[in-house]
Amino acid sequence: MKVDMSPEAVRARLRTMGDLWLLSVKLMNSKRIAKAQDKTRKATALEIQNSIRQILFKEWDPIGVSDNLNLVDEYDSYIAPIYRLLSINQSEESLIEFLFRTERDVLGVACESPEQLRPVAKKLLSLDVHLNIETGK
After folding, report:
1. Which one of 36, 63, 74, 124 is separated from 54 by 20 to 30 angstroms, measured CA to CA?
2. For residue 107, what pLDDT band results from cuts at 50, 70 and 90?
3. Where on the phi/psi map is residue 90: left (φ > 0), alpha (ψ -120 to 50), or beta?
């Protein structure tokens, strides 16, 4: 097998190698950016989760455990359904309904009126629950 060693052929191969090297650097950098975005996304998700946890523990607290910081995770099983309601832009009324039904049907300690839950629903609705991360813009 003969390899063309003319200056033009050598330059063409070197250009191809340079292009491949640049492509590999771009791919390597894109993986770094994706990993950084994933870490940022996870951190944002944890912040959202903690914000919902704090509102449920401090503001909602239907069983009265907020004076014991060891029980801060008492209402964690309600974080995901509340997040779903918030992320699909549900209304204040749907949050009030969820909280009231949870108190009445799950915990067995419903407040006198669902209207009492409006301040909690408003605080939950004030949270930014979007995980959209800007990509270096």
Report:
1. 36
2. very high
3. beta
The gap from C-alpha 9 to its chain's centroid, in whole angstroms, comes to: 53
Give me the torsion for CA of 111, 66, 64, 51, rounded to 10°. Answer: 30
What pLDDT, on the 0 to 100 scale, is given for residue 132?
Answer: 66
Chain centroid offset of residue 90 CA = 17
Which alpha helices (H) appear in the chain, and where do they start and end? Answer: 7-55, 79-87, 92-101, 118-125
Type of residue found at 120: V
Distances (CA, A) of 27 to 34, 41, 134, 136: 11, 21, 19, 17
